Amino acid sequence: MSRRALLGGLMSAGSALALGGCAGLGATGARYDASSLSVDPTVLVATTRKPVSGGRAKPWFGPERATRMTIARARLVAPDESRLSLASVGIGDWRLDRLEPVSADAGDLAAEAGGGDVLIYVHGFKQTFETAVLDAAHLSERIRFRGRTIAFSWPSRDGLFDYAYDRDSAMWSRDEFERVLSALVSAPGAGRVHIVAHSMGTMLTLESLRQLYAKYGDTVTGKIGAVVFAAPDIDMDVFSSAVQRIGPLAGKITVIASTNDRALALSGQLAGGMTRVGAAEKAAIARLGVRVVDASAEGWGIVNHDLFLSNADVQKVIRRSIDGTTA
User: Fold this and answer.
1) E strands in the chain
2) How large is the average pLDDT for residues 76-102?
3) Contact call for residues 113 and 150 (beta carbons, < 8 A)
4) What is the pLDDT of residues 234-286, one digit of tens each?
5) pTM to 2 decimal places
6) HEC per residue, 254-269
7) Residues 6+ apart with CB under 8 A from 191
């Protein structure tokens, strides 16, 4: 069982006891229908990672950079929901069963996504291909997303001392992610594109949005839905500069920040003492013209970097952003 699944399960079990009288982020949260993954446990994948053994078996894709992007269907196995299973107490986990390559054409990804809304998850630092796909499934299931879920996975070495490699790999992938976004927003009859980017994935997402806006201008505004940056690992000045270059898309952004995020505290030290957006005070972020949710009081762990996956209240914030409400 993965660490994130265990944390998520413990939080789910605790929420049944604690959230009823909570006056925090989720006090106005609603119940939602089952996610699309409960009917079709498939996550679409776009990755700039190099395949391992042709991508036919685990680990499927490694940490190296590929010469071209791969589009695939990730067939998942949902947790056992029987009465005596681990999932019955919120500790079950998804499993990646197999991959079915589609092509290297982002247009084919748009065709696979169909005509409804899509949710794209962009992972952060120190992630394997498999954990990125499973995190996309966890997120989609927990916010009860109705529509196709897509995981965009860029080359990460999954090592504590590979921060620079991961950062460069994320930025190297921005053109391919822009191709994905462009294909989705320009597909006939397409719904809205919602993006949840975690940690270092924020830099990649912002750069791709800037390129997308430069290409389409204000006409793309209605195609992009919620843009949620969970614990964004990005310099405040860099973030501010990028936000100013994406026009009305900036109004789509919700930042989930936590001043007690230990991972971002370390990242700030590595960056020469520059505070990361996800660890900054709410007022400082709000001055940049984006919506901010302070989740500092929601974390109960040592690191508090994965609250978007482990905290039910934070997940309700994401869901309300997608629904277009702020209550």
Assistant:
1) 42-51, 61-77, 95-103, 118-122, 148-153, 193-198, 224-230, 253-257, 291-294
2) 71
3) yes
4) 999 999 999 999 999 999 999 999 988 888 888 877 777 778 999 999 999 99
5) 0.86
6) EEEECCCCHHHHHHHH
7) 115, 116, 117, 118, 147
